Amino acid sequence: MESSLDQAPAIAHAHAHAAEHTHDEAGNALFGFIVFLLSESVIFLSFFVSYFLYKITTSDWYPDGVTGLATREPLINTIVLVSSSFVIFIAERFLHKRNLWGFRVFWLLTMAMGAYFLLGQAKEWSELPFGFTSGLFGGTFYLLTGFHGLHVLTGILLQGLMLIRSFIPGNYDKGTVGVEETSLFWHFVDVIWIVLFILLYVWQ
Amino acid sequence: MKIRTILTLVVLAIANAAISWWVGQQAYHWLPPQASAESKLVDELFSFLVTLGSFIFLCVTGAVLYTVAVHRVGRYDTSDGPPIEGNIPLEIVWTAIPIALVIWIAVYSQQIYEKMAVHGPMELVHLHNPIGIEAAYAAPMEAMSPPEEIEVHSRQWVWEFRYPGQDVTSTELHLPVDRRVKLALQTEDVIHGFYIPAFRLKQDIIPNKVIDFEFTPIREGKYRLRDSQYSGTYFAAMQTDVVVQSEADYQTWLAQAAKQTPVTAYNRAAAEYTRASEKRINAGWKTVPPAPAPIVNYAAEEGRA
Amino acid sequence: MTNVPIEAIANRTPQPLPGAPDNWKRFFTFSTDHKVIGIQYLVTSFTFFLVGGFFAMIIRGELVTPEADLVDRTIYNAMFTMHGTVMLFLWMFPSLVGLANYLVPLMIGARDMAFPRLNAIAFWMVPVAAILLMASFFAPGGPSQSGWWAYPPVSLQNPTGKLLNGQFLWLLAVAISGVSSIMGAVNFVTTIAKMRAPGMTLFRMPIYVWTVLSAQIIQLYGLPALTAGAVMLLMDLTFGTSFFDPAKGGNPVLYQHFFWFYSHPAVYVIILPIFGIFSEIFPVFARKPLFGYKIVAISSMTITFVSGIVWVHHMFASGTPPWMRIFFMFTTVFVAVPTGVKVFAWVATLWGGKLRLTTPMLFALGALIMFVFAGITGIMLATVPIDIHVNNTYFVVGHFHYVLFGTATMGMFAAIYHWFPKMTGRMYNEGLGQLHFWLTFVGTNLNFLPMHPLGLMGMPRRVASYDPEFAFWNVLASIGGFLLGMATLPFILNMVGSWVQGKKAPDNPWRAIGLEWMVSSPPPVENFEEIPVVVAEPYGYGKNEPLVAGDRAADLVTEPS
User: Fold this and answer.
1) What does the pLDDT look like over B185-227, one tens digit per residue?
2) pLDDT grade for C555, boundaries at 50, 70 and 90
3) Are residues C195 and A40, on separate chains, in Cβ contact within 8 Å?
């Protein structure tokens, strides 16, 4: 009953295959990140469901003196955020062609658009006549926009990190999985916002 | 050999069925007295499930114990058993049998449930109102009199009952026998559970809602009403008696209670809380104070002495 | 990194990672070795099993008499809250994650998990959650006393009025444990999907790996819902929002939906790997292949998806409309189908085998029988009329203790004994193991069987005092409880004693088939000098065929006659 470890390798080509098989770290990272995002989306889904149920079951939905939400500025915000998904895609294309400066310019533009969105939202928050504790409407509004805003902020920070790392020589020798993940996260945040916008602003 | 195996299996199955049937009959004794029309239906279903469950349990454990007893390896035997990896027809059969069984159980349970016609709360969303219902209470009874309507007020940790017709309040629930009862369940603070084991009925009481709850007591006697949804510190003390009496006794009790001037009833939570707060050293943590002992026309006997 | 020279792999020696200690001290470091992390999980969770068991002793002590006389009611309420929380979040989940951490990479032929550092972070969050939970005993107003469900409005009642209170710390601890579990789930799913050795196709994975995958998928879709509910509850408790607070127009029943949407499937997160353990142990000690391997694998995945649509059966009495009650009754009873199929498969595996009743086999058999019993009471609970009677009574407590103790904890013991030689390189003491089994088996039935008649008679759960009619069965249950407390002593003695000075274990003491039995005991760092090439299905007992290419696996499992 001895260990099989001391046995001579039997099939050489299989070993090469095995080595390749277990060291696909970038592939693992991307796969794991997608799994994580799927899981994360259930949190948002839960909040959406809460919002939906509260809205259809509450008789006096808006707090006193509130008739609804202004949609003009949030719409501009939405357009900026959704377009940034295309901008980040262009940045990725540049990186793919190893055009680092093109990548950095468009990457920075994405960050700026994200920051514009966040500032716009901060402005909206500061002007609203209701707060977090103003009934179910106030609670769900700030919960949804706040939780999403936190994701936008995380996205911008990640983008910042990727931008800094792009100046490290040889950063992309091991692949571009970090950039791909950040970009995927950004698309995710955008899609969530579209649903959120429809729920909060379109369906009034 | 085949015939002998089949015969043995048939004999074992019959023996198992007989034992299971007996256990199923015993199941009635594991339950409190059947004091409501609904309880008979629940017990019937329970007995059925115990019979079926016993049969399956005896089959599986019997097979396991048999193989453990008989198919033991010899002390120095290091050989392997027969490499049987599966048997498709057998696997199909034992997938099909559970499917048939669970459908049988679920359909039977649904029929029982519809017969019980427990009126739960009408939810916020009226999505679907099921089925023509053959109710558990006998039709003549219903023709006899409209359901008796009683309000049930719950708060931490008090049960209080109000009979709106006579403007009577009580901490003991009195009900007429053989008559449909309609309770309006409400709570003033947290979720409580209205549970009378002898009636096999339970309903959570949700804040901000009045929940209509109907059933028919069929046996005179004294039973327990318990809070079944954990409601905080004195949860276990939130119990009282339910008295089911004949129509005449019930009316007499109502009339007498109506004449009595309201008194402060004993409340176990409030009494314990007062006793605890009089002690110098608090043996526990800070708690939500109980609601004051209720003032009612008729106070339950508990703690009177 | 794709072309690692073969020499580089071949030259790896069974040494710890550079700079890492190779003695007991490595268990106290931020090690990224999945085997170290696995043992860290197991030992930490077992410590909290003892803590949760201590709380249970206080509960059973209080329930010896009908009056609330041993401890104050607030303390009793804190005890059952913490007992449930500790046993689930600090014993069941971490111990299963620990076992999976140890076994999955070995079983699929990987050198480690996909994300070793994430793995270590996930582990070290468990002690953080545990410290927060234990610290809540010193918070104003004591620890949470709202039950492990933390149903509002009771959980929102904050008699001290302090911002930092037991419920707050409880929510924080549960959230941290949840984040740790999600990290673990991402890691397991990625590892199983991407790191399998060549030749290890899906239908060549051991059933244990299948069940871990099924369970971790549940974590991924279920835990976020609980997290959402917990965040909203935390907001209500701390900032005064009104999501679940009926006094401010909120809806407390919505919380129950969030809670059970995760917490019912959570039972399958626990029980599925236990099914996996059964499926590993029975073939080894019956010397027969697992009967119906494919259908057992598929039924695990079926449970994963069906378990997502059964949660309302916890809420039949919560003001649920009739259509919902009926719908969820049908989905719930359906769970019995894939489960029943597995039970039949195990019985057929045992049937006609060459059974060897070692400690792990005894524990697995005992757990199987108790699981069948729990399954039958589970079907009763699924039917609406009976559930309305026994919901929130001791019948439910009895049922789920047969699942969580009788099946899951006994199954864990089976697994610990079974893989103890592999993990430590030492054999456990068989006599102490058998003593542990019999004490546990008797204690479990004595403790939890009386709970069924109590529930049928109408004794609600979570009561500190009860009517005298319930005294008889409660005394029996308490005796059983104390017996279970005693039963852990031979286990601790056995584990500590055997680890320190047990007989040296060979690589494959059970003559079992599986990649983990082909490496040394304990396995070297990075597990495999060469990644094996799998050429057969996992349970080839009696078939005399090799499991991996170029290996004498057949010689390992069948003695030359």
Assistant:
1) 999 999 999 999 999 999 999 999 999 998 999 999 999 999 9
2) very low
3) no
Contact residues, chain A, for B125 at CB < 8 Å: 56-57
User: Sorting pLDDT into bands at 50, 70 and 90, what band is C14?
Assistant: very low
Residue of A nearest to B126 (CA): A57
* pLDDT value at C558 more than 50: no
Of C111, C242, C553, the CB nearest to A22: C111
Cβ pair A20:C239 closer than 8 A: no
Q: Is B226 on the interface with C (CB under 8 A)?
A: yes
Q: Which two tokens mark A150?
A: 């936190």
How many whole angstroms separate alpha carbon C503 and alpha carbon C79?
A: 40
pLDDT confidence of C496, banded at 50, 70, 90?
very high
pTM of this prediction exceeds 0.90: yes
CB burial string A105-123: b at 16+ within 10 A, e below: ebbebbbebbeebbebbee
Would residue B167 be called left, alpha or beta, if left means φ above 0 and alpha means ψ between -120 and 50 degrees?
Answer: left
Report the distance separating Cα C343 and Cα C360, nearest Å.
Answer: 18
Which residues have CB under 8 Å from C84's CB, separation 6+?
C147, C148
Q: Which residue has the higher pLDDT, C342 or A13?
A: C342
Domains of chain C, each with CATH number or no CATH: 32-553 (1.20.210.10)
- ipTM score assigned to the predicted complex: 0.92
Question: Chains touching chain B at 3 or more Cβ pairs under 8 angstroms?
Answer: A, C
What is the distance in angstroms between the Cα of B103 and the nearest Cα belonging to chain C?
A: 8
Chain A contact present for C162, CB below 8 A = no
**SS3 category, B77:** coil
Question: CA nearest A50: which of A122, A130, A141, A127?
Answer: A141
pLDDT score recorded for residue C167? 96
Within 8 A by CB and 6+ apart from B151, the residues are B161, B162, B163, B164, B183, B184, B186
Q: Identify all chain A residues contacting C527, using CB atoms and an 8 Å cutoff.
A: none
Check if C374 contacts B (Cβ < 8 Å). no
Q: What is the CATH number of the domain that holds A162?
A: 1.20.120.80
* Out of C2, C229, C251, closest to residue A23 by CB: C2
- Mean pLDDT is lowest, of B5-19, B110-124, C26-40, C420-434, for B110-124
Residue A121 belongs to domain spanning: 4-202
Residue B88 contacts A where some CB pair is shorter than 8 Å: no
Q: What's the domain count of chain A? A: 1
Residues of B in contact with A57 (CB under 8 A): 124-125
Burial class, A129, CB count within 10 angstroms (exposed 0-12 / middle 13-18 / buried 19+): exposed
pLDDT confidence bin for C376, thresholds 50/70/90: very high
Record the tokens describing residue B125, joined without a space. 């969303």
CB within 8 Å of B124: residues ≥ 6 apart: A57
* Cα distance between residue C256 and residue A57, in whole Å: 17
**Confidence check: pLDDT of C10 > 50:** no
CA of B152 vs chain A CAs: smallest distance (Å): 25
Q: Which of residues 66-85 of A touch C (CB under 8 A)?
A: none
CA closest to A174 among chain C residues: C1
Q: How confident is the model at residue A59 (pLDDT cuts 50, 70, 90)?
A: confident
Whether C220 and C185 have beta carbons less than 8 Å apart is answered as: yes
Task: Round to whole Å and give the CA distance between C435 and C439.
Answer: 6
B5 touches chain C (CB under 8 A): no
Nearby residues of C35 by Cβ (< 8 Å), 6 or more positions away: C101, C102, C106, C423, C522, C523, C525, C527
- In 3D space, the residue among C178, C209, C169 whose CA is nearest the CA of residue C191 turns out to be C209
pLDDT tens-digit readout, B9-68: 999 999 999 999 999 999 999 999 999 999 999 999 999 999 999 999 999 999 999 999
Q: Which of A120, A200, A104, A199 has the alpha carbon at shortest distance from A160? A: A104
